[in-house]
What does this fold into?
Amino acid sequence: MRSSIHQVISVGFQYDIHFTQGVFDLDNPLLAQVLQNAEEQRTQKLLFVVDSNVVKHHPGLMDAIGRFCRKHRSAIGEMSVEPLEIPGGEVCKNEPNHLQSVYEAIERGGICRHSFVIAIGGGAVLDVAGYAAATAHRGVRHVRIPTTVLSQNDSGVGVKNGVNLLGKKNFLGAFAPPWAVINDETFLTTLNQRDWLAGVSEAIKVGLVKDGEFFRILRQNAGRLVARDIDAMRQLIRRCAELHANHISSSGDPFETGSSRPLDFGHWAAHKLEQMTNFTLRHGEAVAIGIALDTTYSALIGSLKMSDAEIVHDCIASVALPVYHQAMTDVSTLLQGVEDFREHLGGRLTITMLRRFGEGYEVHEIDRDIMKQAVGVLAESRLKAVF
Ligand SMILES: NC(=O)c1ccc[n+]([C@@H]2O[C@H](COP(=O)([O-])OP(=O)(O)OC[C@H]3O[C@@H](n4cnc5c(N)ncnc54)[C@H](O)[C@@H]3O)[C@@H](O)[C@H]2O)c1
Ligand SMILES: [Zn+2]
It folds into this structure.
């Protein structure tokens, strides 16, 4: 005898991605509105998890958070535990004690499923805090306040959280949409030039696979971006975040159960290069190289004009991002990245390549000899010295 119960569960998510300046200014009500909208109850508690480099570069931040919370206490609940500072950068994803410290603060502060973890920092800190929030008590609410270009235009606006384990990027992770995202451009002013530009690669990526016009504007604005023109960067972040968010909500596969991953264009090599360089390359820099590599491969297999691939290389170099790193001389380790990517995603290997600016397509195998040739093209590139 056999029987089954067929279960269908549909869960909808929604969240807003806000753009503002001075999120903790006492006359800026945005964050209070975001937290207040939660529920008509007053017992919620708040835990702030803050990137150590943001604290260093914004010395008044911790006081401003305290003042803000005191002013809005009746509406947003209370900080039941002091803000937790964790080291910024990949180290916080690599060393498990930082994840542990977020769990301990959640426990100490009595952060329940009606309370909030509010993460302020670069993509790495957001990933750790988001993962802790997604797993503590089977998921508490988290609000993201991204402070780098990359986290404002890409990592912070999506649904993924994670930490590194066993030497592998994001080996532990959870799909957990944030309660809200608040992009405050004031934070960007203190980024060093590397981190100011690293996130531009994600905009190049999404332009190449989804919006040729955006890629064109980006090329046009390269000089302004390098010169730290905030208007050009604001425009870039806004459109990139929008394209990213649209893909997640309209692809039909927000939690990536299928194999199609257009937003991972250039990422199989990027993740491997981050590891191979012991994370001395920023994620965004590694993505720039990954884009250059897969664009070259696309040209070598005949789907893209080589002259277009060169335009992409020039674009990357024009925003002072690399197209090559010497670690790539170890091509066989680099190519192991294809296998890692296959394993991480499961299912059929699916890698996005380019047909033209604004249009990606999928391949299901990589010809190792041609990929080695693509590495060779970049090794010989006159642009490689840019980095
Ligand atoms: N969850 C996702 O979907 C997703 C997507 C893409 C990337 N990521 C992850 O994001 C991480 C990269 O994020 P990132 O590029 O923001 O780098 P990052 O988080 O490593 O930050 C770069 C550096 O800038 C510092 N910093 C942050 N804000 C600052 C500010 N306002 N002023 C001065 N310094 C500041 C950080 O402390 C760090 O030293 C990687 O771990 C990557 O894997 C996640
Ligand atoms: Zn990325």
